[in-house]
Amino acid sequence: EIVMTQSPATLSVSPGERATLSCRASQNIGTNLAWYQQKPGQSPGLLIYGAFTRATGIPARFSGSGSGTEFTLTISSLQSEDFAIYYCQQFDKWPPGTFGQGTKVEIK
Amino acid sequence: EVQLVESGGDLVQPGGSLRLSCAASGFSFSSYGINWVRQAPGKGLEWVAYISGSSANRYYADSVQGRFTISRDNAKNSLYLQMNSLRAEDTAVYYCARRGGVMETITTRFFDLWGRGTLVTVSP
Fold first, then answer.
1. A35 contacts chain B (CB < 8 A)
2. Rounded Cα gap, residues B105 and B15, in angstroms
3. Nearest-CA distance from A45 to chain B in Å?
4. Which of A49, A96, A102 sits opposite B47 (nearest CB)?
5. Cα distances (angstroms) measured from residue B102 to each of A82, A100, B49, B52
6. Predicted local confidence at residue A94, as pLDDT
7. What are the residue ranges of helices labelled H in B32-82?
8. Of A27, A38, A103, B75, which residue is 20 to 30 A from B43 by alpha carbon distance?
């Protein structure tokens, strides 16, 4: 099973600043990676798929990059609605589509 | 409106059974594979099971294999998860989540539509 490791566990950022979240896969997964956002009390929502393609309706301040084993989600200028938990998921070796443990982005 | 709505969550004793449902609307339900994903209280996401649009392919996480059964009724636009021999560690919010495309290819294995979830609590 592929293990997904996200860092940091918690990221403290001021509104308007850039946030950079990392996700590492234990094996090469190409670009078969997705990012999800989960706000408190809500279900997850798709942000990015195929490592860098934004889902429908996702603002341009969200961008994904990387391939192989190292991936990054960047939020260029944090808005108040962006404070949430972010999960990466590999879907190269599936089932199972393993998730990372999440990165919580909190207000600094 | 394109949506998935789960129901059926409840408090159940260890060893008991429960059937979850997921009602779909606003899209061609039979064209999409659907997953169950769960989230234990305060924890991360865990994929549980998948069924293809035609029900021809079904997959399960090792943690539920042999205890849970996924099924669907395309005439009713509904997905189900029959859970037997429930354990305390099955306590979680259960989400249904749509596959990211109608084609059964590697590139559509992500989840592009999620329901709000239903809570299953396994406790004496």
1. no
2. 37
3. 7
4. A96
5. 30, 25, 17, 9
6. 87
7. none
8. A27
Mutation site for B-interface testing, chosen from A46, A52, A88 by largest number of B Cβ within 10 Å: A46
Q: How many CB atoms lie within 10 A of CB B101?
A: 16
In angstroms, what is the C-alpha Rg of chain B? 14
**What's residue B89's pLDDT?**
98
Which amino acid, residue A91? F
Task: Give CA–CA dist B107/A90, Å, rounded.
Answer: 11
Q: What angle do CA A33, A15, A41 make, to 5 degrees?
A: 60
- Quote the CA–CA distance of B51 and B35 in Å, as a whole number: 6
Number of residues that make up chain A = 108
Q: Tokens in use for A39?
A: 């706000």
The amino acid at A105: V
| Model pLDDT for residues B4-56, shown as the tens digit of each residue | 999 999 999 999 999 999 999 999 999 999 999 999 999 999 999 999 999 99
Question: Cα angle vertex A85, ends A82, A90, to 5°?
Answer: 115
CA distance A3 to A69: 10
What is the pLDDT at residue A43? 98
CB neighbour list of residue B79: distance below 8 Å, 6 or more residues apart: B21, B22, B24, B34, B36, B51, B70, B71, B72, B96
